[in-house]
Amino acid sequence: MNLPGALRPALVVLAVAVLLLGLLWVFQRRLIYLPDPAPVPPAGQVVPGAREVTLTTADGLRLGAWHVPGDHPVTVLVAGGNAGNRLHRAPLARALAARGLPVLLVDYRGYGGNPGSPTEEGLRLDVLAARDFLGEVPVIYFGESLGAAVLAGLAAERPADGLVLRSPFTDLAAAGQANYPFLPVRAMLRDRFPVAERVAAIKAPIVVVYGTADTIVPAGQSRAVAAAAAGPVTVVEIAGAGHNDPVFLSGPRMVGAVTDLADRIRDTR
Predict the structure, then answer these.
(1) Average pLDDT, the chain
(2) In the chain, is it the N or the C terminus that has fewer CB atoms within a 10 Å radius of its CB?
(3) Quick one: average pLDDT of 36-64?
């Protein structure tokens, strides 16, 4: 069939667009999850007093994690964001441990030398294994960005005594749309992570911490998560802070927000 000359370029553009969208559909998780898969150093070399532990998931993976003991009765379960591995969150673990808080610093499948490949369901199983490891102790779930979404999901299944959500997005599609406004992100995503929807059913106290200069998860999304929460909410806004600034690892307002929540939980038990 002979096509009018003016129509041929349009069909080529359409074909290329369809091909690109198809590739994005197939490889989208490589854009979402950015693990550093390298093995990490021994825990005790990075965080004083930390030890190596192994978490066993319901689908049979054995995941490395770091546990730091402490004399505070409330433990902090820390789940990182979509990039790096637990070595990059070591400053947070050191800062919390210095306040006496026990910390379980986890890595997802595919991160930090762990086997497997990350997906929304896979990360759900990973943090369930982490919660099982801790047993029947009071626990704060601390989630960074994507980790806030993962632990909001965990709290819906295994209630926490409190949550700290650092730079949370309302759902993954909203965060993706903010970074890729030219793509039909919501229509394409396989993994959803509906944070605002989940916190609307969580009655435990929640602390939402975010930076006003965050260009990866806009501050408005974190404020919307706080507004959606069913339980008591504390909002900590850090002026001028971007998404990956060190203030979110060892800054006094970040560490103080966690320790204050831990003390409140301790004092009400």
Answers:
(1) 90
(2) N
(3) 96
Q: Are 67 and 38 in contact (CB under 8 A)?
A: no
Name the residue among 204, 93, 220 with its Cα closest to residue 154. 204
What pLDDT does 23 receive? Answer: 41
Two structure tokens written together for 150: 């993962």
Q: In what order do the strands lie in the sheet with 139-144?
A: 51-56, 62-68, 103-106, 75-79, 139-144, 162-166, 206-211, 233-238
- The per-residue pLDDT for range 109-165, each reduced to its tens digit, is 999 999 999 999 999 999 999 999 999 999 999 999 999 999 999 999 999 999 999
Nearest 5°: the CA angle 91, 95, 99 is 165
The strand pairing partners of 67, in sequence order, are 51, 104
Predicted model pTM? 0.89
pLDDT per position as a tens digit, 202-247: 999 999 999 999 999 999 999 999 999 999 999 999 999 999 999 9
Distances (CA, A) of 10 to 7, 17, 58, 109, 260: 5, 11, 50, 43, 60
Are 227 and 67 contacting, i.e. CB atoms less than 8 angstroms apart? no
Tell me the sheet residues that pair with 68. Answer: 103
Residues 86, 40 contacting (CB under 8 angstroms): yes
What is the separation of C-alpha 102 from the centre of its chain, rounded to a whole number of angstroms?
19
**pLDDT value for 29:** 60
pLDDT (0 to 100) of residue 204: 97
